[in-house]
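$ fold --in a.seq
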Amino acid sequence: TDLTIPSRQLSRSAAMLGRLCLALAAVSVASASKWPLRAKHGDDVPASFDCAARKLAYTYGKQQIPRMGKFESLYYALDLNSADCSAEMTGGEPELRATANDTVPPNALYVHPSGRDTNPGTITHPLKSIQLAMDQVASRSGGAPKTVVLRGGTHYITDTIYLRSKHSNITVMAYPGEKAVVSGGVKLNVQWTKAPNDINNTYVANIKGQVDEVPGLILNNVYATRARYPNIPGGLETSCGYGCMVDGSDATWTPPNFNKYGN
């Protein structure tokens, strides 16, 4: 089960991986420019070093989070399918934590993406809100196991899931044999069409009224690259923050000179 719940703790290995992947991913988005980017001595760094570092980051990432299997998202974030630095995507499929052999306690509360919060939380009448299920289980007294079971599918959440001391000793699991994903995103209903003027490999969709902004886009569980200049490969999203990007209709774009201000 891929379960994302905000937490104040981050393991040292995860933090190291995050910093390493972020740094190396930043390198990968401009493979035509030598690392370090915008440095005067950048051309003196062999391209083979950049490629080897990205391959090492891919190997290290799979070792740190083995349940991700071939870690497809990391592979593409590091741009390892590019012509100038390619590597084989190796490993198995992401691990399903819940197997058909797992058992569910008889007093568990069930949550389903299409459930209702007026339901009692049984397997036939599940809840919809993970937060509500957590709160109801936490309020139980006695020594019986406290379990919240997520049925298969994507559980979209609009608010942070808050876990306090009262939520201690609660088990959150996927229903045996199913894959439950918790997402803070918004599911869009879109119809893709070719961009005007027959721009190569560019598609557009009207999402008016569904969301106010799109800080990131995921298609079929893979991060997609939104249209911008300069383009970046591998679906890796980078941004200088909210409100700092200039809309394409508000300016005439010219190729940037990354060495204009030196290192």
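$ fold --in b.seq
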Amino acid sequence: MVIKSCLLSSLLLSALPQFAIAWSGQPASSSSPPRSSVLSEDVATRRSFLAGLATASLATVATSYPSTASAADEELIDCYFGCGCFWHVQHEFVEAERKILGRSDDQITSRAGYAGGKAGALDGKVCYHNAGNIADYGKLGHAEVVSMRIPSSKFYDFAVEYFKLFDKDGFRPDQFGDRGTEYRNLVGIPGGKSSPLAELLVKASVATGDKLDFAVGKGDDRDLPKVSFIMDTAEYPSFVAEQYHQFHDGFAFGESYPQSYNSLASAFAKKGEDFGTCPNGMMGIGLGGL
């Protein structure tokens, strides 16, 4: 059994309410300055980012990503979403694939993975924390993500599902437990900020409560609350995580999923899917190499 720190974090949430403060170190209050005023110059507010994408007109979006084509006939795109621990996130996107695309279990493409680091892979590997410190994803600058292959016309719908993962204040579920670059918020799309999909991403954010700001991902980015980094998948691809991380129960106590969901990992492996040759990790530190 794999025990991640994101699972242990749920123990702290009710016992340590003082953690629920702004990450600037100041208590959250109505007198706090707008976050756009304290973010770095590399981070744009939602509306300013959307304005900066105005040159990618709606006509371009309609031309490049036709919404009239059926999902079955349409070209598929590879993208990914990161929002803290990837266990819960993967489950939510599996459900989205079923709901939005009507996919059956053997058609599910959502996979837990790692992305966003400048170093890419080391000797062809990106691994979870392990006793041998082999291609450790955190040391390579990556964050936990869930990748998927979906029709481009449905990207907006999947973006909406992504923003539903955040609470009304723009915090991810494990915001005050798992912190650091390994858990930062990021979205990977073909073309990055230059893609028409970036505009759809911001519009989906606004439509679901306007809770996040955005920044152009440059690799090895910081973990900023209420900020999501937009990555170009050509420069920052996703690397699939180990089999034992796939279709795992959620990080919160009681967040157990049906065996039919948990067994998808072995089902895909039996069909020949390659989940790599990384050593198994345990308790986030690779205890005993298990």
